[in-house]
Automatic annotation (TrEMBL):
Peptidase M24 domain sequence ranges: 19-220
InterPro entries: Creatinase/aminopeptidase-like, Pept_M24, Peptidase_M24B
Pfam families recorded: Peptidase_M24
Organism of origin: Vogesella facilis
Phylogenetic lineage: Bacteria, Pseudomonadati, Pseudomonadota, Betaproteobacteria, Neisseriales
Leader sequence segment: none
Stated name of the protein: M24 family metallopeptidase
Length: 224
């Protein structure tokens, strides 16, 4: 049996960049809405159920990757590690939400970090993840770097900012659903400048003391 092979930036016949942007915007909106629902005392398992209910209210087509919500020390975990279902959100916690949702046949993937209370180090960590993501995007726009160079830059900037970049998290393809048939590998290993609207840039950083981390991801897209 012959297995079809595709270029790493292949898309399906239904692909449309404007629909990718809609999917991105809807998914990021869902992240923000779900974050507002999470109150101290909730468990990670309960948070995941709340996320499912909110996505259904918003009219999602389907989830294309399992919703990830992590509290406290669990923010150090990577995507493939299971949630801690009994982990409870504390009044002064940091947490992040990572959603992969299909809207109008296209894959949205977005993640952000949030802080309850006013712990300055946790607030700084969440802010740094967003800032670092933006700096890497601007580097991509200015210099049209390939994936490895983008993550090398991210690692250097994270260190300069006082954080540790998790290089096991290196971004991935998205497309009209399902992108998985293209087997494109990670953004951090992609040896060309990533095209607009096809790749998710992921940034996960950790406090050097190893107590907590923060996560931010969004679509790399040139928006005029």
């Amino acid at each position: 049996m012959t297995v079809a092979t595709y270029p790493p930036e292949a898309t399906g016949a239904a692909f449309a960049l404007d629909k990718m942007i809609i999917a991105r915007d809807q998914t990021m909106l869902a992240v923000q809405r779900i974050a507002k629902l999470l109150q101290p005392g909730i468990t990670e398992l309960q948070a995941k159920q709340l996320a499912k209910e909110e996505l259904e209210r918003m009219g999602m087509q389907r989830i294309w990757h399992g919703s990830i919500i992590r509290f406290g020390r669990s923010t150090l975990k990577t995507f493939n590690q299971p949630i801690d279902p009994d982990n409870v959100l504390q009044p002064d916690d940091i947490f992040f939400i990572d959603l992969g949702v299909v809207w109008e046949g296209h894959e949205g993937d977005a993640g952000d970090s949030f802080v309850l209370g006013d712990d300055p180090r946790k607030l700084a960590c969440a802010h740094a993840a967003r800032q670092l993501w933006q700096e890497v995007k601007e580097k991509w726009l200015r210099e049209q770097l390939a994936g490895p160079a983008l993550y090398h830059f991210a690692e250097q900037r994270a260190q300069a900012m006082g954080w540790q970049l998790n290089l096991d998290i290196k971004g991935h393809r998205v497309s009209d659903f399902p992108h998985a048939i293209y087997q494109a590998g990670s953004l951090g290993d992609f040896a060309a400048c990533p095209d607009s609207g096809l790749w998710i840039l992921e940034i996960q950083i950790a406090d050097p003391a190893g107590q907590f981390g923060a996560f931010y991801e969004d679509l790399l897209v040139r928006e005029e």
